[in-house]
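Let us work through a complete example step by step.
Step 1: write down the sequence.
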Amino acid sequence: MAAKYSLGKEKIRVLLLEGMHQSAVKSFDEAGYTNIEYLKTALDEADLERKIKDAHIIGIRSRTQLTHEILKKAKKLMAVGCYSIGTNQVDLQAAKQLGIPVFNAPFSNTRSVAELVIAEIIMLMREVPAKNAAAHRGIWLKAASKSYEVRGKNIGIVGYGHIGTQVSILAEAMGMNVYYFDSEKKLSLGKAIPVNSIGELLKISDVITLHVPETEITRNMISAHEIGLMRKNALLINASRGTVVEYNALAEALKSGHLAGAAADVFPTEPASNNEPFFSVLQQFENVILTPHIGGSTSEAQENIGFEVTEKLIKYSDIGSTVGAVNFPQVTLSPNRNKQRFLHIHHNMPGLLKDINFVFTNKNINIAAQYLQTEPEIGYVIIDAENCDCDSVLNHLKAIPHTIRARMLY
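Step 2: predict the structure and record it as tokens.
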């Protein structure tokens, strides 16, 4: 028997920004969500505030910033989908306190980023950027000096997560010696060797590639001191976050000849659109590859991201499952089509579950199933009930002190 949703799918407003892959639209449409607004660009703050206030689900990429102030004005918002690996464009703590789970795509574009990193290493080792620029000026620089194979070279990977491990596999397959540092203990793949500190990794590597999130700890992780520890004529690749490398210090190391080259796909400040100019201190160097944040921008990756994030949003909207949320208690659920399902998000206070259960027992309503997960700050409980006055139950659930939000799913 098909579930009768308290809010029809045709009434659930989905707002998709920044021109994400049509696979997202297709997935929503096939799941019965037809009230979809799709925009190819990010919105300025005023337009974002105006549109998000009526949205139930919003999908964004990296340019849209969902601050606490923006989220507070989104009274109907149930969930956020970040169609990217990172989620730093969303105030995750504010979203949690407002009862809004945030989903992302930590796996879908890992291979795309890894392939770009390997390609950049090969090109820099062969001095392709400088020779390409010279050829465009009519200068023929045919020489084997300062041109090297990657085979036998040491690659140092900072951050051995989803992308770092993919780089590790590809680099080893090409004959490179793989070393890595991660703040957490990780299982090595292949012959990769962990080291005890970033300093140790910098000293032994011919190539350093960075794959860490943007946090206070990683801000300016690679600055003048760290670059000074790197081998003479080493390469530095940054495809993680623009704030991880202090680019002025990198520019000085390139000017002095301490480093042989670098590649950067991310920058502290990036243009909001392709129509805005781009500036970087690294633009003066022909031995630096600059790319406009395209590490994950392949057709395959964007299509997979569209499917992955949308599937998580649909599962939360349809059955209340929060698997894959980065800021929320993780609950795995299956549909229970013959019952009424209620969702209750609350501050994690003693006695809340008793108050929730009392709403049902006081009305002699049988609870057929109950699921609960808590974090230090919030709790998330799902109740499947039998034959109840749904509106009355929902109103009583919303009236419980410390409730963040309550919803009847079906």
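Step 3: interpret the result. Residues 335-410 form a domain with the Alpha-Beta Plaits fold (CATH 3.30.70.260).
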